[in-house]
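pasting for ref
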Amino acid sequence: MFFWDISLVSLVMSLIIMVTGFWVYKKNGSIAALLIGIAYIFFITPRIAYLMHVSGMVYTFIFLRVIGYILELIAVIRLGYKKN
């Protein structure tokens, strides 16, 4: 039950971050915020699958998480090169 609780909290927090990323993009056109919102879609998918007891897709979930991390890395680099 403990791991299910952690996954549920992680799912909720990821949904909040994803929605916030899309909201900030819509508000001021920040590509970095859009990339973060999209990245969290890749983080949410394995969480939903875990909560639904989908198994046998470990490599797919690893691939999705790696894509999410790459998108977040690109977003952080874009923010780092942004002029104030």
